[in-house]
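Our platform keeps sequence and structure together, in a single record for each protein. Such a record has a labelled line for the sequence and another for the backbone structure tokens. This encoding replaces a full spatial description with a residue-level series of whole-number codes. Below, we set out a record of this kind in full and without editing:
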Amino acid sequence: MYADIPRIPPAHYLVVEKGRRPADPLLDPPEVPELRLKREEEYVERFQELLDKAVSDRLRTNRVGVFMSGGSIHRWWR
């Protein structure tokens, strides 16, 4: 029944207009030049800066709690 219905590629959306059905990507990220730093430690420092900025941009408070789960703990003890 669905064999003749074309699939929409991952991360795309479909708009049907006057019989035309273009599938456009949800995101069209800009091209970013490759990052080349002098020392290996600079990559870690740069990542930490970007992560700190990304988290602070999204926080609504100065106090944050995080719950993390690694799955079923009983597997580690067997």
About this structure: The beta strands are 12-14, 23-25. Residues 61 and 68 are 20 Å apart (CA to CA).
